[in-house]
């Protein structure tokens, strides 16, 4: 198939990943190409050059409009809208069999655009006002919508999901997150260092449990970092930097337990299954899709309960490492995910032809 992938534009789709949406788009593009599809990635122009990139904007907008995401900035909105409008026009005229829309833009959801090319839209966020109405009005022939978990589905459609919506769990390549039979006795955390990711709770729980902890990931919120994270570093708490690829997999896989600390309704939690693939059990906060994703591979604590999270660390350490690894192989592999994507592409194309 000839497939257009439309990405979020805040960061480049390139290593080291700024977050789960960038990782999702990169792995999707690479995986579909490996399965013989022709893929064009519509993303920020400074994304990974190994892909055929059609730039939606010249560079990711965190570079040209730093710190303005979620601030309602009119200049950023106009910049992004103009980029997506042009990209949607090129996709419509580009002879694509299907569009996989991974953006947070309303523009690919407009009826006239959905009529131009069969579309699969993957929702990566909980519902919010600027997008909700467009999503609900977009359930037309030739359009399929996916969410990453049952928990996310219930947020978007508490009254029951429409027939053209499905749950599509994310997946990882086990070869990229290799299994290790033993850990080093310490804890690890990875993700965007920002309040909604709960980095401060991971530090507090590790201290309470008497465990060493290494943090990995980009510093998304410098004020949060300066006020709540940097002062806590030293001794058993360290920052290991923003790693990518094999270096990050090696670092995560060496740990004995992974801390997953969302302070929002996390739709999935890609970092959790990356750790689980390595055989690392998870101690986490029970929000969003955490219970659905982690299952028997970890232990969960209520939100904002540091002593309970510390207890969960101790309980998770007792879980055999084969358990999280087996859960990923059963439910969350890249091949399983890609096969489901391909099936959705075929469904969207067939429905559009009727």
Automatic annotation (TrEMBL):
Looking at the UniProt entry, the stretches that span the membrane are none
Q: Where is the Glycosyltransferase subfamily 4-like N-terminal domain?
A: 19-175
Q: Give the source's domain of life in one word.
A: Bacteria
InterPro entries named among the record's database cross-references: Glyco_trans_4-like_N
Q: Name one Pfam family in it.
A: Glyco_trans_1_4
Name of the protein this chain belongs to = Glycosyltransferase involved in cell wall biosynthesis
Its source organism is: Methylobacterium goesingense
């Amino acid at each position: 198939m000839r497939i257009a992938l439309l990405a979020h534009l805040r960061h480049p789709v390139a290593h080291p990943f700024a977050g789960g949406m960038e990782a999702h788009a990169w792995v999707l593009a690479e995986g579909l190409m490996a399965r013989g599809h022709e893929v064009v990635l519509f993303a920020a122009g400074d994304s990974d050059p190994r892909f055929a990139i059609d730039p939606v904007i010249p560079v990711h907008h965190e570079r040209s409009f730093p710190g303005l995401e979620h601030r309602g900035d009119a200049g950023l909105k106009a910049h992004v809208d103009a980029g997506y409008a042009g990209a949607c026009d090129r996709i419509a005229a580009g002879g694509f069999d299907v569009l996989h829309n991974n953006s947070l833009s309303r523009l690919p959801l407009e009826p006239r655009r959905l009529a131009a090319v069969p579309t699969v839209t993957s929702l990566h966020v909980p519902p919010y006002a600027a997008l909700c109405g467009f999503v609900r009005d977009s359930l037309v022939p030739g359009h399929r919508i996916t969410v990453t978990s049952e928990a996310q589905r219930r947020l978007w459609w508490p009254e029951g999901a429409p027939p053209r919506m499905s749950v599509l769990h994310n997946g990882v390549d086990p070869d990229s997150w290799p299994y290790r039979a033993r850990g080093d006795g310490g804890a690890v955390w990875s993700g965007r260092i920002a309040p909604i990711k709960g980095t401060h709770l991971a530090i507090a729980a590790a201290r309470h449990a008497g465990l060493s902890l290494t943090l990995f990931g980009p510093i998304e919120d410098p004020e949060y970092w300066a006020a709540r994270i940097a002062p806590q570093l030293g001794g058993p708490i360290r920052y290991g930097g923003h790693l990518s690829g094999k270096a990050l997999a090696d670092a995560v896989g060496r740990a004995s337990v992974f801390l997953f600390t969302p302070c929002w309704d996390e739709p999935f939690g890609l970092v959790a299954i990356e750790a689980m693939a390595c055989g690392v059990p998870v101690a986490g906060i029970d929000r969003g899709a955490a219970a659905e994703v982690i299952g028997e591979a970890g232990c969960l604590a209520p939100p904002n309960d540091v002593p309970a999270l510390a207890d969960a660390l101790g309980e998770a350490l007792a879980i055999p490492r084969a358990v999280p690894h087996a859960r990923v192989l059963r439910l969350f592999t890249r091949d399983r995910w890609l096969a489901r994507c391909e099936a959705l592409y075929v469904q969207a194309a067939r429905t559009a032809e009727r």
